[in-house]
Design brief:
By secondary structure, the protein is of the alpha+beta class. The chain contains four helices and four strands, in the order αβαββααβ.
């Protein structure tokens, strides 16, 4: 009888504790980190900026998504009404699954660009094209703080 009672306690403990620890592991694993990239672009360069993003940058991020480093949140915004400071024309938002995913993305970005656009000469070449028509640029890496 003691063996059966002991076995029941072990089984109940594992069925109750394991899902809880798994849930905590999942929460830690998927603590999203959002990269917001801001670009101030002169009006005469806006069409070229959008063209580069649609034809080169967006396909790049879709490839990163296939690697399971981001969760599909790839968006671009513009302001409806411009604020005074800081002034920006476009904002791109990418939601990484965690900080480790950002590290992997940094390691793989050259390889991804070369795979998608072998004629471009790498990530930095595309980046230089964007920066040549961008007046100002900055990135914000933000992490959500759960309120519940």
């Amino acid at each position: 009888m003691k063996k059966i009672l002991f076995l029941v306690i072990i089984i109940l403990s594992t069925t109750l504790i394991c899902p809880i620890s798994h849930t905590f592991a999942q929460k830690e694993k998927y603590q999203f980190v959002i990269e917001e990239s801001y670009y101030k672009v002169n009006p005469e360069n806006e069409d070229e900026f959008l063209e580069i993003h649609k034809k080169k940058i967006f396909p790049f991020w879709k490839e990163v998504e296939k690697m399971d480093l981001i969760d599909g949140e790839i968006k671009m915004y513009t302001q409806r009404i411009h604020t005074l400071k800081p002034s920006w024309t476009y904002k791109t938002v990418v939601r990484f699954k965690n900080y480790n995913a950002i590290d992997q993305w940094l390691e793989k970005r050259e390889e991804i660009i070369n795979k998608l656009f072998p004629e471009e000469g790498g990530y930095n070449t595309i980046r230089k094209k964007v920066m040549a028509i961008t007046e100002e640029h900055w990135d914000e890496l933000i992490k959500e703080i759960p309120l519940e």
